Amino acid sequence: MKIETAEFARSAHTSGDFLRDGRPEVAFVGRSNVGKSSVMNRLLARKGLAKTSSTPGRTRAVNYFLINRRFWFVDLPGYGYAKAGKEDRREWAALVEAYLREALPRMRLVLLIDAKVGATPLDVRAYEYLTGLGATLTVAATKIDRVPRGKRPGALRDIRGALGLGCETPLIPVSAHSGEGMKELWGSLSPHLEASASARARE
């Protein structure tokens, strides 16, 4: 997909801050430090648009980015940040849950799993929760460049097994560093964006 414009629009700290303009949304969710912002920047070919950090738990709001003035990329707070206080974790979880329940009809969700670490128990719980909500999912295995090529098939097989992924759910290995898998990830997202845009135009 050709990216003509990409701009930060808003950080939502409460459900009252959510954007509700009817545009389709692609939301990115994953464990803290899984590389959400880096993957978004690489997809958009915009270095530094979504702020990256080596410090887990950096994203603490629902961050909206308007792409081609047609759809939203949404960066959700990462889960599993151990150093965050219990109250902070409860607030982030409530914010993400409120967003997911409201945005589901117009949203495609990308669940990011660290390919080198594999699917952790938190990732499994997140996947079960999201599928329980009825979310339409693409699963991306990030940092695939850090896994030796000979071990990649086994790493991906382990992630599929841990999550119990059916063949209908894509598992796409990606690297924000090398760009590997970005074309395939766009290929998974484009049909949703095109269908949603067409439906919106008919309204």
Radius of gyration: 16 Å
Spell out the CATH superfamily.
Answer: P-loop containing nucleotide triphosphate hydrolases
Describe the strand arrangement of the main beta sheet, using strand numbers.
1-3-4-2-5-6-7
- Distance from N terminus to C terminus (CA atoms, Å) equals 24 Å
Biggest sheet character: 7 strands, mixed
In percent, how much strand structure appears in the residues? Answer: 15-25%
Oligomeric state? single chain
Number of helices: 5
Structural class: alpha/beta
Helix content: 25-40%
Notes on the structure:
- There is one protein chain.
- This protein is α/β, with parallel strands linked by helices and 203 residues long.
- It has a single domain, classed as Rossmann fold, CATH 3.40.50.
- Helix content is 36%, strand content 20%.
- It has five helices and seven strands, in the order E-E-H-E-E-H-E-H-E-H-E-H.
- The protein has a seven-stranded mixed sheet, sandwiched between helices.
Overview in brief:
This protein has 203 residues and is α/β, with parallel strands linked by helices. 36% of the residues lie in helices and 20% in strands.
